[in-house]
Design a protein that fits this description.
The protein is an all-beta fold and 133 residues long. It has a domain of 88 residues: Sandwich (Immunoglobulin-like). 0% of the residues lie in helices and 35% in strands. The strands form two sheets. The protein has a four-stranded mixed beta sheet with strand order 1-6-5-4, with no helix packed on it. A hairpin with a 2-residue loop joins β4 and β5. The relative contact order is 0.23.
Length: 133
């Protein structure tokens, strides 16, 4: 790229869920990264505008559900321009028996929800010592 060329940053729209849903207003499907570590899976879910107080994480019968409410813009404020829309977040993951459900943890930082899904001890790789005969 030459010095006279410039790159414009294009805003990316949040993906709106298109399935039937009983929740009112817009519902967004948060983008995620899923990482595998030696002893756990880690999910990073982008939920800008959400905080630890507005996020709800549930794990029931192998179904991990992420939900978050976003604060509505007060009607008294007159918005001149907005690229960010009000709504809520919702995403589900079906977990296998390889996950230790009792040890799942979550934390929120700067609009990113991090879920740590430890692998079951019986499913973790282990080193087997070879002894001399």
């Amino acid at each position: 790229m030459t010095t006279t060329e410039t790159r414009e940053i294009q805003p990316r729209e949040k993906e709106v869920l298109m399935s039937e849903d009983p929740r009112s207003g817009l519902v967004f499907r948060p983008d995620v990264d899923i990482l595998e570590e030696r002893d756990a899976f880690v999910i990073h879910a982008d939920m800008p505008g959400a905080s630890e107080d507005t996020v709800d994480v549930q794990l029931e019968k192998g179904l991990l559900t992420l939900q978050a409410r976003l604060a509505q813009t007060p009607a008294a404020n007159r918005t001149l321009y907005a690229e960010y829309r009000d709504g809520s977040y919702y995403r589900e993951f079906r977990l296998s028996d390889d996950i230790d459900a009792a040890a799942v943890s979550a934390r929120m930082k700067d609009g990113v929800l991090e879920l740590r899904l430890p692998k079951s001890v019986s499913r973790r790789p282990r080193k087997i010592t070879v002894e001399a005969a």
